[in-house]
Structure formats: structure tokens, C-alpha cells
Amino acid sequence: METKFLKILIKFSLILLFGNNLSASTINGSQLKTIVESWLENNGKEANISILDELKYPECDSSKMIINDISGNSKLIKVNCFGENPWQFIVRNKIGGKKKAKKLDKSIEVFALKNFKDKGTIISEEDLMTINKKRGITNIFITDKSEIIGKKLKKKIKPKEALRYSNLTNDWLIEKNSLVTIVNNRSFVTIKEEGLAMNNANYMEKIKVKNIKSGKIIVGYAKNQKKVIINTKQN
């Protein structure tokens, strides 16, 4: 649309400037195109211009014709004639089109399940497959199978559904509602009682334990899968 408008504008400009009585000696669009292309090539520039052949300009001696790159990047070329019938013309040099951006790999492999699995299922390596997900959102999906194998599902998962960290239970040392032994060393006496874990805990994290015998809830530290100690000074 812009090019068409430019061509129409040039036609009307010539009519207004020279009227209908142009000199018998003229330069047409084809000749002007050759002049501009030669100028570009002599200056080591790529040439890709289009000028209507039917356009006509008063003849201009080469000594009175000046050609300039008015864009600074050889995309707009201006021709000035300072002869008896002065005129000027601007042509667009269609070079250096937008380069197609190199396509980057915008996906990454994440893990999913081959088959439907119900809540509480422990995942094995044979259950896993890989699928592609957009790279920008992979922080919520799992790319390392070692973070999946042996974990339990918090909910049922469909086949080929990308596994999220939120789909898996944490690998707790002691899980809530597990039976544990409460160990309390007092001087030379060690007291051991049966308890029920009230929350999840990893190694040496605080854990609330209900003494099954007394019903009292106490706070201890997770020593191993079956042992809760009352304070950190105990071995």
C-alpha cells in the first residue's frame, strides 16, 4: 500500500512540477533505475529498487545530478537534478529484510506415567515415560527420575500426564500417624514408651508425638524411622 501511494504521489508531483509540456529530451523510469543501481553498485551497496518505466523526467546532465543515501543504510536514495528544469526523486531500496529468527528448542523432556495409577501408588522406574513440555514452565514438573522413583502419589494420575512435585508425597523419615518409640534418657535410666506421630518430620526435625499410654502430647526430634528422642543432647 505504501509503495503504491509513493508511485501515485510521484506521478502527481511530476504533473504539478512540469505540466504537460515536458521537454522532448527526457529520462524515463527505466533509465533512472539503471543510474541509481550503478551508483549503489559503485559504492559497494546492494541494489533492489523498482521505478515505473513510464515515469519521465527532464534530461539531466550527469555533472548536474547528485545522488545521496538519505537513510544512512542505503534504503532510501535521493536523486537531485540541478539543471534548467530541476527535479528530485526518492526511491526505496528494498534490502536487508528481516532475518528469520533461529528457532530455539522451546521444549524439554519431563516425566509422566505410562498407565493410570491410583492415590498411594509407589512409583517404580518401569512406570515412567518422558513427554515434552514448554521450557518456561518446567519448574513445576520433574525432569529427574530419581526424584520420583520410590515416592507415593498424593492423588490418582492419568497416563501421559506430566508429573508435578505436588503430585508426590515427601520422602519423610517419619510420617504422620506412624507408630514410634519415644526415648528419654534420664541420667543412667532410659525410658522408652510407645507413641503416635502427630505430624511428618525429617531427620532431627521437631515432631509432636502422642504417648499412647498416657495420652500426653510431647515434642521430640526424629532420630530415625522408629525413634523419637526428647532432646537433642541424647544419642
Give the oligomer, counting copies of the same chain as homo and different chains as hetero. Answer: single chain
Main beta sheet, described? 5 strands, mixed, barrel
**Total domain modules:** 3
Shape: rod-shaped
Listing every helix as H and every strand as E from the N terminus to the C terminus, the arrangement reads HEHEEEEEEEEEEE
Strand content: 25-35%
Helix content: 10-25%
Rounded Rg: 42 Å
Mean pLDDT over all positions: 82
Count of discrete alpha- or pi-helical segments spanning 4 or more residues: 2
Q: Please identify the structural class as seen in this structure.
A: alpha+beta
N-to-C span: 85 Å
How do the strands of the widest beta sheet line up side by side?
8-9-10-11-12
By DSSP, the count of extended strands is 12
Low-confidence segments, ≥5 residues, pLDDT <50? 8-12, 14-23
In short:
Helices cover 13% and strands 29% of the residues.
